[in-house]
Each structure stands twice: as C-alpha cells, then as structure tokens.
Amino acid sequence: MAVAIEPAGHPLVRRVTGFPGDVLEYRDGALSRNKHEVMRTDRNPLPAGESVLTVPADSFLLTADHGDYAGIVSPRRAIKGKALYILWSNDWGRIGKPLAAQ
Questions:
Q1: FRET partner for 46 with CA separation of 20 to 30 A, picked from 27, 40, 59, 87?
Q2: 56-88, pLDDT tens digit by residue?
Q3: How far apart (Å, rounded) are the C-alpha atoms in residues 41 and 39?
Q4: How high is the pLDDT of residue 1?
C-alpha cells in the first residue's frame, strides 16, 4: 500500500512496509514481515545498522522507491491518505494508471 504523508508541509508518497506490531527482518537481500518475504533489495530498508525491527504501536515503517528506509511515521493521523494513481515514472506507459493495476 502506498500512502501520502506531509513532513514539513511537503507531500510525499511512500510504501507502507510495516504495520503496528509487525516484526521485520532484513537478511541476505530479503526483507521479511512476520517471517514472510515481502521484497528483495540490496538496500537495507530498516533503520541504519538494524536487521530486526518490531514496528511500534500506532506506527508504520515506510520505504522509498527502491526499498530504502524512509522512516517510521507515527501517529496514524500523520498519514494523509492512500495513493491511487502513478503521477510519474521512468516507464511512460505507467503514468496515470491506477496503483491497483500494478
């Protein structure tokens, strides 16, 4: 799921990778959530130096475009909404397409 947030008044879209209570583990290029692999990336999507993280209550772990760590957002009201469409992509054919179709 992709969500919109507004740190310092600048809207951003990020992927929700971890939900409250989820246990995330990064090992050998794979990120697992609650022991199920959710993505492969050569970039650790957890905070610097961590390989295991339990997402705190009322918090969400966000990742950026290439699986990079983008932060933990809390409280839930900091999330402004769900992203619905692709507004920019290096693949021109994806622009304007609903995210659900991806």
A1: 87
A2: 998 998 888 777 888 888 777 777 777 777 777
A3: 6
A4: 57
Report the DSSP beta bridge partners of residue 81.
4
pLDDT, tens digit (0-9, with 9 covering 90-100), for 7-46 = 667 777 888 889 999 999 999 999 999 999 988 888 888 9
Distances (CA, A) of 98 to 15, 22, 69, 74, 77: 15, 27, 24, 27, 24
Q: Are 79 and 3 in contact (CB under 8 A)?
A: yes
Q: List domains and CATH numbers for the chain.
A: 2-101 (2.10.109.10)
The full DSSP string for 22-90 is: -EEEEETTEEEETTEEEEE-SS--SSTT-SEEEPPTT-EEEE-TTS-EEEEE-SGGGEEEE--B----S
